[in-house]
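Hi L.,

You mentioned the student needs an example of a multi-chain input paired with its predicted structure. This one should do, with 588 residues in total across all chains.
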Amino acid sequence: MAPLLALENISKRFGAVVVADSVNLALAEGEALGIIGPNGAGKTTLFGIAAGTVAPDAGRVIFAGEDITRLPPERRCRKGIARSFQVPQPFSGMTVFENVVVAAAFAGGVREASVYDACADLLDRCGLADKANKRAGGLTLLDRKRLELARALATKPRVLLLDEVAGGLTEHECAALVTLIKDVRAGGVSIVWIEHVVHALLAAVDRLLVLHGGKFIAEGDPRSVIRSPQVAEIYMGIAADA
Amino acid sequence: MSQGKYQAEHATHSSRIGVTLIGATFVVLALAPFWGDRQTLRLLAEIFTFVALASLWNLLAGYAGLVSVGQQAFVGLGGYLLFALVILLDVHPIAAILIAGPIGALVAVPVATLIFRLRGAYFAIGTWVVAEVFRLLASQISALGGGSGISLPAAVVIAMAPSRQLREFETYWLALALTGAVLGAIVALLRSRHGLALTAIRDNEVAAQSNGIDVTRIKFIVYMLTGFGTAMIGALIFLMKLRISPDTAFSVNDWTAFVIFITVIGGIGRIEGPIIGTIVFFMLRQALADLGSLYLLMMGAVAIVVMLWAPKGLWGLIAERFGWQALPLQRYLVLAPKTEQPGGKP
Ligand SMILES: Nc1ncnc2c1ncn2[C@@H]1O[C@H](COP(=O)(O)OP(=O)(O)OP(=O)(O)O)[C@@H](O)[C@H]1O
Ligand SMILES: [Mg+2]
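Structure written out for the whole complex:
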């Protein structure tokens, strides 16, 4: 079956730094994919390329059989690609509720009032119900990350790109997050999750990719990838807690 | 009607007080011809035009992120349209003001197509270049006095009202009504679905794009709307001045520098900012008028102090400290009443 989202031979460099070197990635419909890799490996840049905020130097981005390489971010969002930002990018002057309402209304191309119920439920699911009427700019880092997730979900995506949403959570919160992500997936959303918190990733994804030096150097069953010698080599101690 | 579980409400306690105060102020101002002298009316009308210009610039720069230093292009365009329509085509001055709006929006289309290719500082420079081109073009129109300008014919001025006093009342009310209309339109825009998107763009353009908002399109619309409003206010300003020349019509000092000063000290990106800023600006101007050119220096000093101490402007400082909003713009989530009252509410 053709993949839902595919990066084909994507290359990208910033000045002399090669961030992606003819990278290929295919996400099947309904799949949950994990990506790990050391700092600066180019993980976030790949999300930018998939979501349309970063233009690749070469290669194509395919979504649902269509070449979307030149499509602007808002069009990709409306087609069903949602992302969370690693460094949260809330609409700080707006309330938490408005943050999700604007995403739901514009990604869906629908009237504002028609998304209120769904947005309120979403805030509840993401643990932000009691902060709905707070200014987003006043949230703690943790709540900002929750808002990233809630806002991405508000766009009713077919593919959800999650960029390090588990960092800084307690054991209990992390388990709740994994449950939420599994729920979302059970609702038919395909997922790509970049995460340094490896145990959370292992609990939620079917396949794991390792990005290093602008290439995927390992891929496959999450547990065997984590134990592979390549990963041990790049990560040294980091993978040991898995 | 199908009723969801949740509703959103705009009003807060502070905004209810704000709206009441604004309403009361409007009534008092509408009655100004009965309590103020000629000087007061003139000063107030001038204040209104600056509130309108600054509010429009705030929409453009503060919300849509389009930092233009060339809005004098539209002030001048409006002014010249007034004189052209009145002198060359015998249009009534008030009708001319209303016509200047749509033409301003129309002219904004090719201008935006051109300057939207520019980013950041180049965009700002582009807007200024366009205004300079407009000024040069205006000085070529010999039927409107070329480079030295022209006065509104006495016959036209006299025909506006039976007496000079009534004419002054008329222009005063016109200024109040137009400014009220501009502010009302901006509030309505910001409360609408597009206003929500515009506020998102104000806060974070990249996130707005990534969440389905067509940022370029909304910026384009805002540029047209401000072209509409600015040209109309420009026409009004020169109806009050009764004389126009390329240098006064396209003055970067009067229609951009002062307007930016007002918006920045009042609070950019907040609807209340330009109103507070205009009040401060005129108080300073009245207080420092005797100092001659020193007064510009003092204004500059005030701007620097405000930018250092209150980078979000005076209203930004107040609003964040106390959580106030004078106008009900934000949506607050409330649980809707569980059941509809049978028979409906009175
Ligand atoms: N806009 C940019 N301009 C220049 N260099 C950039 C830009 N964006 C990213 N880089 C560089 O590209 C490299 C990859 O960055 P990226 O953010 O994609 O890495 P990452 O794998 O997500 O890292 P981390 O785990 O720290 O989040 C880094 O060296 C970064 O400094
Ligand atoms: Mg990253």
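You could point out the following to them. The interface with chain B takes residues 51-53, 72-74, 77-78, 82-83, 85, 89-95, 97-99, 101-103, 105-109, 111-113, 116-117, 120, 132-133, 151, 154-155 of chain A (CB under 8 Å). The first strand of chain A starts at residue 5 and ends at 14.

Best wishes,
N.
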